[in-house]
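We close this part of the discussion by returning to an individual protein. Part of our work consisted of pairing the sequence of a single chain with a tokenised description of its backbone. No coordinates are needed to read the tokens, only the vocabulary itself. The amino acid sequence and the backbone structure tokens for this protein are reproduced below:
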Amino acid sequence: MQDTSAVQYEITDSPSDGIASLAFHPQNSHQLLASSWDSTVRLYDVEQNRQITRIDHDGPVLEACFGGGSVVYSGGVCKQVSRIDLETSTRTTLGRHDGSVRNVCWNEESGSVLTGSWDKTLRVWDPRADTKEMQKIELPHKVFCMDIVQNILVIAMANRQVYIYDTRNMAAPWQERETSLRYMLKSIRCMPNIEGYACASVEGRVALEFFDMSPEIQAKKYAFKSHRQTVGDTEIVYPVNALAFHPIYGTFASGGSDSIVNIWDGVHRKRTRQFPRYPDEISSLAFSPDGNMLAIASSYTYDEGERDHSPDSIFIRTLAESDCKPRAVANGH
């Protein structure tokens, strides 16, 4: 069994190509899902540090998420939306988009799957129905990243557009926004308290936005610089590729093409922790549901084109309370 007393360890049998997404089982901190450009979805037992199963796909998998029970949903470059039964390691097709499937989200409230694509559509699927595709929603731009918390779905698209849906009424967006960040969005993640979301851009910035449109709440939103490095007189700006919120404390992690992972206290606008540099760019991050571990994908994202890069790796970092607890709380204020 893996020595979980180690502060950090590398997962064995990592994907053999770029790691597109990581996701812990929402009720089981030992199970981690990884989707990859090597056309696989892999399930790991992080406590025993072993691969439980590997499900091959017809092309690169851009995202996979846990559904109800022992089911996973996935999508990717081959345009298919797949349902995976982990008990039998079998994959069936729910349906297809007309372009690559960029994001896959499970809506536990309704038992439905939501997928966003480069074909400029959002689709809603009911895995239990004979006709799986329940709804096809035309969007103004390609979907770049997506996240869901309870019944709130947030979609970041090209042209800095953000649509927010209440999944109980998908006839029209609840809110339509343009992000305060000036460049392309790479990641978007909802706050666990359902007050808003964080988004990150290719230009080394992160913004915190809030759903409540009242002036006093909107006054809380802000953006800040991150994942930058000064070499001589030159500031090098790196894309922020990944965000993840701590499920208990509401602090969040960011990972960039500088191969660095930071933990931020968004309320008090402070960085609480920076971990030592990883072998390559950070492509995805995921906290375990108990908040005790952070899964980190160190995987080149090809933002500099072809170059030599470190092997694609997944690290599990065991977290101390001081890593993620807000400073004011940690100090007793």
Observations:
- The mean pLDDT is 94.
- Residues 54 and 225 are 38 Å apart (CA to CA).
- The longest strand covers residues 28-36.
